[in-house]
Amino acid sequence: MEAFFISTSIVALAEMGDKTQLLSLVLAARFRKPWPIVLGIFVATLANHALAGAVGSWVTTVLGPQVLRWVLGLSFIAMAVWMLIPDKLDEEGESRGMRLGVFGTTLVAFFLAEMGDKTQVATVMLAAQYHAYLWVVAGTTLGMMLANAPVVWFGDRLVKKVPIRMVHLVSALIFLVLGLLALLLPQTTPLA
Q: Are 128 and 57 in contact (CB under 8 A)?
């Protein structure tokens, strides 16, 4: 359960002000149909994070514990730095989505926007650290929904009230602590 709660918390915080949260706002403003947008976000996130979690689980079978400890520790620290860099929404391909409908447009746009995103990378790292694929994927997916569904329903009012810079700083601090713990744990202590 620890993997679930940490995954949910990290991704919900990391998603604040992220390009996919901005994408949620754009989709909500454009289509004004919250249910198909939220369903598209859910399906895209579940698929994307299931793949990312699988990669994270696979990595643990390839790397030895000592190498994995250093890779995870340095990756979490790199994520801390990355959290301090604000995202911008890429407006490319907006007109292509109209043929797919609201759900299809959201599904494709969200899946592609998550490729290589902070939350996808975090899912890979969390799955590698916790060896709890289902709990990590469930947690990161819930974290994405907690951050994005309210944006779809409440949009601009909600985003303006959240101190995005503070959320990014807290997220960076969490990733930094996780990275340092992974690096400083004795070799005989498992990462999970």
A: yes
The set of long-range contacts for 163-167, using a CB threshold of 8 Å and a minimum separation of 24, is 164/16, 164/17, 164/86, 167/13, 167/16, 167/17
Q: Please report, as a single letter, which amino acid is at residue 68.
A: L
Copy the structure tokens of residue 35.
């249910």
The CATH class that applies to domain 2-90+111-184 reads: mainly alpha
Token pair in block for residue 181: 């713990």
Q: What is the pLDDT along the chain (192 residues), one digit of tens a residue?
A: 899 999 999 999 888 877 788 788 878 877 888 999 999 999 999 999 999 999 988 988 887 777 777 877 787 788 778 767 765 544 444 444 457 789 998 998 888 888 878 888 899 999 998 989 999 999 999 999 999 999 899 876 665 666 667 766 776 787 788 778 878 876 544 444
**Residues 168, 68, 7: CA angle, nearest 5 degrees:** 35
Query: In this structure, is the dihedral angle defined by the CA atoms of residues 168, 169, 170 and 173, taken in order, positive or negative?
Result: positive
Dist CA 75 CA 182 (whole Å)? 10
User: From residue 3, how far is each of 47, 109, 131, 133, 166 by CA, in Å?
Assistant: 19, 28, 9, 9, 24
| pTM of the complete model | 0.72
Q: Where are the domains of the chain?
A: 2-90+111-184
